[in-house]
Specification:
- A hairpin with a 2-residue loop joins strand 30 and strand 31.
- The longest helix is centred in the first third of the chain and has 28 residues.
- The chain is an alpha+beta fold.
- Strands 27, 28, 29, 30, 31, 32, 33, 34, 35 and 36 form a 10-stranded mixed beta sheet that branches. Strands 1, 2, 11, 12, 16, 17 and 18 form a 7-stranded mixed beta sheet that branches. Strands 3, 4, 5 and 6 form a 4-stranded antiparallel beta sheet that branches.
């Protein structure tokens, strides 16, 4: 019995050890232990922490937006930049190139890690410009950088995580250390990992089964206006102009490509009276269901388009004629059979319906002799330009006459304004055009000038006292374009404060100057305009709209030693009659005896109500 009891004891001890091992393993997996908690941030640094994270979110959001429009690129490799056949030019801007994920020669799907590295570099290079040397906090703290920002981007199934290692040492103005911060972390709601997975499956499926090419071939065969093959009893030759056939084919592709649906994604059903579309325009390339996502396809007639038809008679396609000499010599037969070579880009866009994020990328399609191309279909007459002109050479190629009108866009009648300086940008080239001037006795202000040809150009207009205006234009053919400039008025800013008593709930009518180390951050906003400044500061001008009365939402935060001690939340109307004569605007803010975070939260909750009794801004 004693021996049996010892065995039972050993079994119990063994079970306890096994259970303890699995419990420790579980806790480690759950990160309940073995992972130190990050140090708590002092309460007074919460605004600084929020400020840095807001900049990380802003810059990261810009990066996400750029990769959504370029197919995953922010910085283009040299082998893409130097080869115009490797990308589709969407717009003549810094990020206007959309590199092909597939050409007829190669697959070039950017790996997910490459896209993450693009975002990391963008955050590293642009975060500090957003932070502006921590201007809102320099009056309260000495902030020393111990390292440069180093971002790490992780694409998850449901979000995008951005971590930035950015060591900061923060001390107060007396030199006492407040805290050291080493890392900032934010989450963005974009499911780029899933989008990349969908895109990669689409490209690989298209590369294998050529669904897009076969769809275009079917469209050619079904369209009566595009000659493919046929016979006709006639002695009169049938003729088609190649440029007309090309234009009809471009239109056919543009109109029908968006009708394609991708199975296992979200898409509207075809009308019941169009069974052909339901049978032939539904593509099934995906292995999993992605019902939160939509896929669309597009083509633009202005994009590069290689088109060749054989046989041809130069600019014409003609039927061949035969006579039935033996039996019916007076009867003629017209017959034709043409084969098409095509090479053109399309854009595939994936929409995450959960957050309305759109990711687009380009593919190159090819058809050779009416079949999907296995490789390049380029003939000797088809060449991409590799030698680029200098800016002076490009700007000297003034081929298209454009008439440019300039208007003041505040007045309802859009009054013409002269002396507007115009600048034209296409790709990396910028060409000064001159200035508009009054004509017809001041009835219009315009500039007539010849400009270089450009499919997607940017026209910039600027004049002292106005916000710069831009317009996207095409200069392939002569035309007219109007630019509208918003007049602005710059005024200096001053902030005074009125004491609010928590007990009596009264706001003092007496205005006081701001105390030492008190900083007011001022935001003036409306739907079409926003301005920001800090008081006191060396340059504290506000840019306000001019030439009319405008309503603004004013938000001011008055801070001292990291605590918000006052502010203003108010909607005001500024009348142009008064603003036009003013050099300075004085804002009246409320403040209270804020000793701790609870006082601050109490004041912030009451601020909208307190602001109602605050004096209106003064124009001086």
């Amino acid at each position: 019995m004693k021996k049996r009891g010892q065995i039972t004891l050993f079994i119990l001890i063994g079970l306890i050890i096994v259970i303890a091992f699995f419990l420790l393993f579980y806790l480690k997996q759950k990160e309940i232990i073995f992972k130190p908690k990050p140090p708590l941030l002092p309460t007074e640094l919460a605004p600084l922490d929020a400020y840095v994270k807001a900049c990380i979110e802003k810059v990261s959001g810009e990066g996400v937006s750029i990769i959504g429009t370029t197919g995953g690129y922010i910085y283009y490799p040299d082998f893409i930049k130097n080869d115009m056949s490797s990308y589709l030019l969407i717009a003549p801007t810094e990020h206007g190139m959309m590199p092909y994920w597939r050409t007829l020669e190669a697959l070039r799907i950017p790996p997910l890690q490459f896209i993450a590295e693009q975002m990391e570099r963008y955050v590293n290079e642009n975060l500090k410009s957003c932070l502006q040397n921590f201007t809102p906090f320099v009056a309260q703290y000495n902030i020393v950088e111990k390292s440069e920002p180093k971002a790490n981007v992780e694409f998850g199934d449901e979000n995008t995580l951005v971590k930035v290692n950015y060591a900061l040492s923060i001390s107060d103005k007396q030199g006492r250390k407040v805290a050291d911060i080493k890392e900032f972390k934010i989450e963005l709601p974009y499911r780029i990992k899933t989008i990349h997975q969908i895109a990669e499956e689409l490209v690989k499926a298209e590369n294998t089964n050529k669904f897009m090419e076969y769809t275009v071939i079917d469209l050619i065969a079904l369209d009566e206006d595009i000659p493919l093959n046929g016979v006709e009893l006639s002695c009169k030759k049938k003729r088609w102009h190649t440029s007309e056939v090309e234009n009809k084919l471009k239109t056919l592709i543009r109109v029908n490509l968006p009708k394609i649906r991708v199975e296992r994604t979200s898409y509207p059903d075809f009308p019941a009276d169009q069974p052909y579309l339901a049978k032939h325009f539904v593509w099934n390339p995906l292995k999993l269901n992605y019902k939160d996502f939509s896929v669309s396809f597009s083509f633009n007639e202005k994009w590069p388009f290689y088109f060749y038809v054989r046989p041809n008679k130069g600019s014409w396609l003609e039927s061949g004629m035969q006579r039935i000499q033996r039996y019916l010599p007076f009867v003629c037969i017209q017959s034709w059979q043409f084969s098409y070579d095509l090479r053109f880009p399309i854009v595939i866009s994936i929409l995450d319906r959960k957050n309305n994020y759109l990711f687009s990328f380009a593919l190159e399609l090819g058809i050779e002799r009416n079949y999907p191309a296995a490789g390049s279909v380029a003939s000797e007459s088809y060449r991409f330009r590799t030698e680029e002109p200098t800016e002076a050479e490009y700007c000297s190629r003034k081929q298209t006459l454009m008439t440019i009108f300039s208007y003041d866009n505040v007045s309802n009648s859009f009054l013409p304004i002269d002396d507007v300086e115009l600048e034209f940008t296409c790709l990396k080239y910028t060409c000064p055009l001159g200035k508009t001037s009054y004509e017809s006795g001041g009835a219009v202000a315009l500039l007539k000038t010849y400009v270089p040809r450009c499919t997607y150009g940017i026209l910039k207009a600027k004049k002292e006292g106005y916000k710069e205006s831009t317009a996207f234009i095409s200069t392939e053919v002569p035309g007219e374009v109007s630019v509208y400039l918003t007049p602005i008025k710059k005024v200096k800013v001053k902030v005074v404060k009125h004491r609010y008593d928590f007990d009596s709930e009264m706001l003092s009518p007496d205005a006081e100057e701001l105390g030492k180390d008190e900083i007011a951050s001022i935001n003036v906003k409306r739907s079409d305009h926003e301005a920001y400044t800090v008081y006191p500061a060396e340059f504290n001008e506000l840019e306000l709209l001019a030439e009319d009365d405008f309503t603004y939402n004013i938000t001011i935060h008055l801070t001292l030693n990291g605590l918000v001690i006052g502010g203003l939340q108010k909607t005001i109307e500024l009348e142009w009659d008064e603003l036009s004569l003013a050099d300075e605007i004085v804002f009246h803010v409320a403040y209270a005896d804020v000793k701790n975070e609870d006082d601050m939260l109490r004041l912030m909750s009451l601020l909208p109500e307190i602001s109602e009794s605050a004096p209106l801004p003064e124009l001086r």
